[in-house]
Amino acid sequence: MTKKKAIVFDVDGTLIPYGKKGIDTKLVEILNTLKNDYYLFVATGRHMLELSDLGGVDFDAYITSDGQVVTINSGEVYASTIPKDDIENVVRYVTKNQIACAFTEMDEYYINFTNRKVEKYHDYVVFNTPKIKDINKAIDGEVLVVTVFDNDYEVKEILKLMPDCKMMRSNQYGADIVSAKSGKGTGLRKALKHFNISNKNVIAFGDGENDLDMFKVCLKTCAMGNGDETLKKEASYVSSDASEDGIINGLKYFKVLED
Fold first, then answer.
1. What are the residues whose beta carbons fall under 8 Å from the beta carbon of 241, sequence distance 6 or more?
2. What pTM did the predictor assign?
3. In the 8-state DSSP scheme, what is residue 66?
4. Distance of CA 105 to CAs 45, 75, 137, 178, Å?
5. Containing H/E element for 252?
6. What is the DSSP string of 13-28?
7. Using one digit for the tens of pLDDT, what is the confidence trace for 48-70?
8. How many C-beta neighbours within 10 Å does residue 6 have?
9. Helices 152-160 and 84-97 sit at what angle, rounded to 10 degrees?
10. Three-state SS across 156-218?
């Protein structure tokens, strides 16, 4: 029988509590059981290369790089890149003003230099710091995400130079800039279309500001107790913290699991 329902999960701060590495084993067992009745998706700011700690759960779709890339287990891949004029502008600005800035492409993640804020960002989400490279290579590349490690003023100044883009922030240490035409919501719509699932039959779990785009697609949404206050206001249900069975309690609220 074809499954007609799906559950989509953010990763950092949702599936994996901040400061932890890997999904809790109890939750892994539950997710593998749910696959009998639901398609399971992840929607994350992480690059596809940074998803080795998902506990062996075989997700049906991976919405990565804040929705810029959608990888379906059947092998289909959808990708949205940032216009080259915008990339050239940001490379010049961050080089001139000595701002730490990382660039994500399909097969690599690199940065101009690191500092304490870069280190805190990657400690917070527990994945590897990007390699230091000449970021001029981004001008001729296919960039999915630009991550700026600076204050909101500098991020807004950079956005003025990237008219075809928008900003999404998942934590206080770095801001992700992506194509204005993409986002977790856009990626989720592509995954739902692929599997022929109505948004009425989807439950979304998240914690960050960058999950708002995804929440707008779904009628049933669950914010973690540790989540962004703006996201909580938009959620159908606010659960406990991710580290305190936030997903499990949310699944019980939506009657996916029994109490």
1. 17, 224, 225, 226
2. 0.83
3. G
4. 13, 18, 11, 12
5. helix 246-253
6. TTTB-TT--S--HHHH
7. 878 888 888 999 999 998 899 99
8. 23
9. 140
10. HHHHHCCCCEEEEECCCCCEEEEECCCCHHHHHHHHHHHHCCCHHHEEEEECCHHHHHHHCCC
Query: Is the pLDDT at 28 greater than 90, yes or no?
Result: yes
**For the residues of 71-132, what is the DSSP string, one character each?**
EETTS-EEE----HHHHHHHHHHHHHHT--EEEEETTEEEES---HHHHHHHHHHTSPPPEE
Distance separating alpha carbons of residues 188 and 177, to the nearest angstrom = 18
The burial of 254, by beta-carbon neighbours within 10 Å (0-12 exposed, 13-18 middle, 19 or more buried), is given as middle
* Rounded distance between C-alpha atoms, residue 60 and residue 202, angstroms: 14
What are φ and ψ of residue 212, in 5° steps?
Answer: -55, -45
The runs of H, that is alpha helices, within 5-58 are 25-34
Residue 200's nearest CA partner among 214, 185, 220 is 220
pLDDT digits (tens, 9 = 90+) for 114-172: 999 898 888 876 567 889 999 999 999 999 999 999 888 999 999 999 999 998 876 78
Check if the beta carbon of residue 65 is closer than 8 Å to that of residue 46: yes
